[in-house]
Amino acid sequence: MSALSLENLAVALGETPVIADISLRVARGEFVSILGPSGCGKSTLFRLLTGAIRPDRGEIRVEDPVAGAAHDTFAFMPQRDALMPWRRIIDNVTLGLEVQGLGREAARTRVRPLFAAFGLEGFEQHYPAQLSGGMRQRAALLRTIVQDRPILLLDEPFGALDALTRAGMQRFIEHRWQEARWTTVLVTHDVHEAVALSDRIYVLTRRPARIIANFDVPWPRPRLGSPLPPEADRLEADLLDTLLTQTGDPS
In the predicted model, is pLDDT for residue 2 greater than 80? Predict the structure, then answer.
């Protein structure tokens, strides 16, 4: 059963068509990535899912048993950590729970046991400026998943990190996903990241976006830090070739 399905979705922002026709499905517990050239509408797709904007055409369906309004179905992690600099890390992590109406102490009680698993134990009382970029991203991820939503949306969450920190965060989320099996949709422009983390990958055209390709990623996990078969290199090459046809690359 699909946890999420989009049917013939289309939207324009002002006079600009951004998404022309997108249909896709995400199964419960599946990790799906969406690749596309810059500016093609990947982040707009997440705005549609979270209810920030409404489609001009098409339907978004969240299937039982996770059906609900957008605000209680999706947990969203944006491109940057968006931590509030005046709040300590524990209070940044509990922010979503407090917005839901949970009291501050009850929210702290819920999140404290998770700090060790996210590599943040001992940093609960620090401020964001006192943490490394990778630690801030782990705090942002913890803030997102602790809301206990059925579907996790990740909008290029590691794009602003340096290469070494990014690789560490990719391994971290792979490990945590294997434990929790969140239904996850990742927007990324990183072909290797998509292959390393995903069960399936959708590739979008230039704006207005359509789905141009859909690839299965069949190899067992963990993939990061382990040798992958030669087929994985071929898949990355196919994905890159598909993307380059959309960017006008002269090669």
Answer: no
Residue that finishes a domain, picked among 95, 115, 148: 148
Tell me the backbone φ, ψ of residue 107, rounded to 5 degrees.
-65, -45
Query: Are 9 and 20 members of one domain?
Result: yes
Q: Which pLDDT value is given to residue 65?
A: 47
Both 141 and 154 in one domain: the answer is: no
Spatial distance between the Cα atoms of 27 and 225, rounded to a whole number of angstroms: 26
Say whether pLDDT at 156 is over 90.
no
Q: Does residue 30 have a pLDDT over 50? A: yes
Predicted local confidence at residue 125, as pLDDT:
95
List of residues 6+ apart from 74 with CB closer than 8 A: 49, 50, 149, 150, 151, 152, 153
Of 28 and 117, the one with more pLDDT: 28
| pLDDT of amino acid 248 | 57
Give which of 209, 172, 196 is closest to 46, Cα–Cα.
209
Question: Within 13 Å, how many C-alpha atoms sit on residue 189's CB side?
Answer: 15
Among 203, 187, 211, 209, which Cα is nearest to 240's?
A: 203
Token pair recorded at residue 144: 């997102």
* Residue-number span of the structural domain to which 199 is assigned: 1-73+150-220+235-251
Q: Are residues 185 and 112 in the same domain?
A: no
Residue among 156, 210, 151, 145 at smallest CA distance from 187: 156
48 and 120 assigned to the same domain: no
The predicted model gives 99-106 an average pLDDT of: 89
